[in-house]
Amino acid sequence: MYHITIRFYEELNDFLKQDYKKRDFEFSFKDRRSVKDLIESLGVPHVEVDLILVNGTSVDFSYIVQEHDRISVYPVFETLSIAAVTRLRPVPLRDPRFILDVHLHKLARRMRLLGFDVDYHARRDDAQLAEISELENRILLSRDRQLMMRRRISRGMYVRNTDPEKQLAEILDRLDLWERCRPFTRCIECNGTIKSIDVDDPQAAEIREQIPPGVYSWCREYYRCAGCNRLYWKGSHYEKLRRRVEGILSHRSI
What is the pTM of this model? Predict the structure, then answer.
């Protein structure tokens, strides 16, 4: 039997039983295990952890827990430099891309509206999500704690909120993405990039045929999705989306 003392800090407490939150607590277990397995047995996904100290020394997830170890587990550090210790999360992506699980459809559309590259498909299972996240270096967003504990997932975030608007603000805050928002640059239906097109070009006759006559009479500014060829223009629906985007961006934390 192994006996250790452990403490989780800040938002990692969200995953713990009430008796374990915001304090040192003793924990016992029989089998030999890595610190990663220990942490996840207590309900905390490894993708949420950025630093582990054992008896004051930083370790990685492969460390084998020893009798009477004192373990401190920390989330991502936003302002404090910990360059001299073993950080467990991978280096942040220069151009973050995402993959969302089947329950986050509304969030996927909102993120695409802000210009983020979001892979979403309603029929993907957990194994497929983990595989795509690993192979394409996509950050996996999910409310499924067990999914976030899969070993091959190195980039991920457990989404705490249930309301799509609050989920979006949570992600923009925690991943510091506010400055990366590029509204109306991606198709909310297929995730393709949206480009401006010249409908007066003689070669654009096929595109002009898709434009309702009542719209073509007053609008000359059009955009097309490179993925699904969906046509966009700044009509009444655009104004509704523009107001939604302004509302989202106005909620940025100070």
Answer: 0.83
Q: Which domain holds residue 68?
A: 2-74
User: Of 146, 180, 214, which residue is a domain's last?
Assistant: 180
d(CA 106, CA 164): 6
Q: What are phi and psi of 81, to 5 degrees?
A: -80, 125
pLDDT at 211: 80
In a domain, 62, yes or no: yes
How far is 14 from 162, CA to CA, in rounded Å?
A: 14
User: Are 176 and 200 members of one domain?
Assistant: no
pLDDT at 204: 65
Number of domains in the chain: 3
Nearest to 251 by CA among 161, 169, 162, 164: 169
Residues 6 or more apart whose Cβ sits within 8 Å of residue 165: 110, 248
How far apart are the two ends of the chain, measured CA to CA in Å? 48
CB 143 within 8 A of CB 156: no
Smallest Cα–Cα separation from 224: which of 234, 213, 233, 216? 233
pLDDT at res. 94: 66
pLDDT (tens digit, 9 = 90+) per residue, 130-165? Answer: 999 999 999 999 999 999 999 999 999 999 999 999
- Cα 53 from Cα 227, distance rounded (Å): 46
Residues of the chain with pLDDT under 70: 77-94, 202-205, 253-254
- Maximal C-alpha separation, the chain: 79
Looking at the domain assignment, is residue 250 inside a domain? no
Q: What percent of the chain has pLDDT over 90?
A: 71
| Backbone φ, ψ for residue 134 (5° rounding) | -70, -50
Spatial neighbors of 63 by CB under 8 A, at least 6 apart, are: 34, 35, 52, 54
